[in-house]
Amino acid sequence: MSMIAAFYSNKSILITGATGFLGKVLMEKLFRTSPHLKVIYILVRPKSGQTLQERVFQILNSKLFERVKEVCPNVHEKIRPISADLNQRDFAISKEDMQELLSCTNIVFHCAATVRFDAHLREAVQLNVTATQQLLLMASEMPKLEAFIHISTAFSNCNLSHIDEVIYPCPVEPRKIIDSMEWLDDSIIEEITPKLIGDRPNTYTYTKALGEVVVQQESGNLNVAIVRPSIVGATWQEPFPGWVDNLNGPSGLIIATGKGFLRSIKATPMAVADLIPVDTVVNLTIAVGWYTAVHRPKSTLIYHSTSGNLNPCNWYEMGLQVLATVEKIPFESAFRRPNADFTTNNFTTQYWNTVSHWAPAIIYDFYLRLTGRKPRMLKLMNRLLKTISMLEYFINHSWEWSTNNTEMLLSELSPEDQRVFNFDVRQLNWLEYIENYVLGVKKYLLKEDLAGIPKAKQHLKRLRNIHYLFNTALFLIIWRLLIARSQMARNIWFFIVSFCYKFISYFRASSTLKV
Ligand SMILES: CCCCCCCCCCCCCCCC(=O)SCCNC(=O)CCNC(=O)[C@H](O)C(C)(C)COP(=O)(O)OP(=O)(O)OC[C@H]1O[C@@H](n2cnc3c(N)ncnc32)[C@H](O)[C@@H]1OP(=O)(O)O
Ligand SMILES: NC(=O)C1=CN([C@@H]2O[C@H](COP(=O)(O)OP(=O)(O)OC[C@H]3O[C@@H](n4cnc5c(N)ncnc54)[C@H](OP(=O)(O)O)[C@@H]3O)[C@@H](O)[C@H]2O)C=CC1
Q1: ipTM score here?
Q2: What is its EC number (predicted)?
């Protein structure tokens, strides 16, 4: 019997960010392994014209939750959506709901955040810092609370190259930042943002670091722990391999590569691709919840959920495996044949952007215009290149994260818990994982049917022929122009033609002799 699963039985759990990528997998695993838990409260806001109930219905009826329904048929009764907006004072939770949350909650998992790299500092502070502070305040009024688990990111201190499982101080106190956001206007905030974030690449990593300091300063007597995942990818094993439902991190780039939009990228091939499967992060998070509640460590423990120091894979290996997979299982209606060249300096990056990205987009848009359709490829390409420029920092640096607490926790688990809540990244086979990831992107993100693979392969063959034809035509045109203008080109041309002629004549003569 799993001790961790038993611990969560009969517990009331509060999850923020439960409609997000990580939150959904966390909920799924909790329900599947502890079907006798009392209730999971989730803080949800209405979105995209959907009510709370519609959002929850959609999640419960998704493929991700299929296995849950077998072990916990009354899952819909155990999930209690609470209308809340983390950007509002007291999260805009009704009095009755707040009362219930305060009096019943045993464990809090705080996953909600803005993960956008380009978020305005005010927005990022509100969600990643102020909301965390408010939630801690709420938690301090929960008499039955046993543990508060905060999800941060391994990149919150990405300005350092070696990162320990400790909270690093921020030059400006989070409280001062929170206060200043209340009275500074947007334009001044924009002006001071680069100074505040310093050598971090974006407001996301900066505010996640501030969020950690807030946890440290405001947790009082609470049992608190922080989990820091690196780049969270598709599921490795559970509930099934390859599940993913958003474009963040590598998923969007896998699509862009598989569809042949992205053909070269500025990346350091040997830099560590510190990916971590979402189910590994979730297993660790659940184990951390149990350990924090049961063992009540004296200080706030930080757990790195990273892969680089125990089982490294680099961007080159990852790129190769993505390509090998899309060769075997191609995506439908590719724009060009997939390719992934890594460039390492600005000049070659600009060159390949022009040749491999902008030029084909302009030609294709021209073709769309000619056929009476609306051009769209250049716009799409520019958006893609903007996205890549935001991710570039993370594919051109390597970090070392120490994982002592995570390893300690693994050793504390019973063999059964190590199996049920496996977060030992040493067991991960990267080639298999990446192949399943790409397949998952095809099935769950692009919603492509595997029956369409032969057609997709045919389409790639056609693209290859167009490519050869285009290159030959281009070569002939350039050559023709050169011959017309340059004596040297003409000489070379006549030399090549006469050489070929002589070679063929010699070959013919020798074969006649043999007969
Ligand atoms: C060979 C293989 C190599 C693989 C190589 C992998 C490298 C992978 C490095 C990851 C490194 C993360 C390391 C931090 C890990 C955390 O701790 S944070 C969690 C991760 N967070 C993120 O990834 C968020 C990044 N995304 C953003 O911040 C915003 O989407 C951006 C990039 C600023 C774009 O903002 P925007 O212009 O307002 O556009 P937005 O509405 O978000 O999306 C515009 C279009 O781009 C698409 N898009 C959005 N994100 C992406 C994406 N990642 N890729 C492609 N398209 C995207 C959208 O689908 C949308 O298309 P349409 O639906 O309009 O057709
Ligand atoms: N994905 C990754 O690569 C990594 C993620 N992390 C961390 O993991 C956690 C989860 O990330 P992930 O699941 O990927 O992110 P998602 O963007 O998928 O999910 C974010 C969640 O936060 C909720 N949320 C955002 N704003 C509000 C608001 N104002 N009120 C209520 N809820 C809100 C979203 O709700 P809604 O659905 O309504 O938008 C959603 O449920 C975050 O703390 C992130 O920093 C850390 C490292 C890497």
Answers
A1: 0.90
A2: 1.2.1.84
